[in-house]
Amino acid sequence: MGPTLLTHASQLLTLRGPAPRRGTSMRDLGIVPDGAVLIQDGKIAAVGPTAEVTQVPQVRALLSGANLGTSPSVEEIDCTNRVVLPGFVDSHTHPVFARPRLIDFEKRIAGAHYEEIAAAGGGIRSSLRGVRESSVHQLATAVMRAFHEMAAHGTTTVEAKSGYGLTYEHEIHSLEAIRLAAAQWDGTVVPTFLGAHVVPPEYRDNPDEYVQTVCDRMIPYVAEERTDGASGNYKLARYVDVFCERGAFSAEQSRRILHAAVVHGLKTRIHVGQLTRTALELFAEFHPASVDHLDHLNEADIAWLATADTVATLLPAANYFLGLSAFPPARRLIDSGASVALATDYNPGTAPTASMPFVLSVACTHMKMSPAEAIAAATINGACALDVQHRKGSLEPGKDADIAIFDAQDYREIPYWFGVNRCLRTITQRQMAG
Ligand SMILES: [Zn+2]
Fold it and tell me: How many A from CA of 412 to the centre of ligand 1?
């Protein structure tokens, strides 16, 4: 596509400035009234008030050249009565599954516990069955559908985890499905290996043997440098994640897995503190990009997050869907100076939503984040959680042209109108460059 000029946005949220946002800077969205953005070759070329951007010599040359027919035409998108912001960065999702978990949903409503749900044929085992019985192509189709749904709600960058295969073969299939879907989607995908999601039933009596398999077989394979003609060098995953929790992996087992990740040159992130507290400092040496969930924290954990580079990623859609009354302590984290991100946790068991605006709404109403804090958490801080903040998460010259356009005049409408989709359009760098 040729150059594109967005003009007259009621509010253009640039999110320019420091990354990650911490403390009071989370409220600074860098708002430009009557804003404009010029996109060229998939990158943001100019940002500012419409009256200024249209006077930039480069823009004037494009506009007059187009009028004279001497340069490619500029597509102009009138954003009157629209809010324009960086596309959301959904930094925590589990999109590789075959079917929804309707037994869990109905049984949980009726008050059943985890064991009863499993006995009725629900629970994570049903997702394992679904993935193990599916082809890579079928899984990729499901992942693609999730990516499209996310984009429809304003998301342009997605972290996607494996974790419902839990054998060497099916974890690799899951990562290959993510890669296939990513190749067909216009947004950006960051793949994560979550072979340590739960201990699969085959290893129930010997979980350490499964940990050994993850460390000695799966991680080395995932970390191998590969090449393909179209995209050059790549690895099947950029991150290794582990579910450190009672009933999943102990802190000691989690440390072994994260150590193997680092040894093989992969970066780390951790599901931790969802049901019970684990001291975060136990993982400091692995420099996790993010620690996710964090329903259970103490003052030492919060003090550590206040100074660490690690992003605190909160997933309140899971609390909502499980019908919990308690939510992660977003206020204490933000007020202490931790960098907080928000993500959907898209998964079939506890958070079947692709909608970042819904997550923002729950963050405001149930975690008392301000609308501005929620937007910073879903854009620039999400980008920091994936270490892509140099390219994503704000609208600044030189960054990727990943943009969401909302049918709203004020950014606070994004979390305000819940249960409907006000996102009109997303623009991605790949659409613009392609
Ligand atoms: Zn998760």
Answer: 27
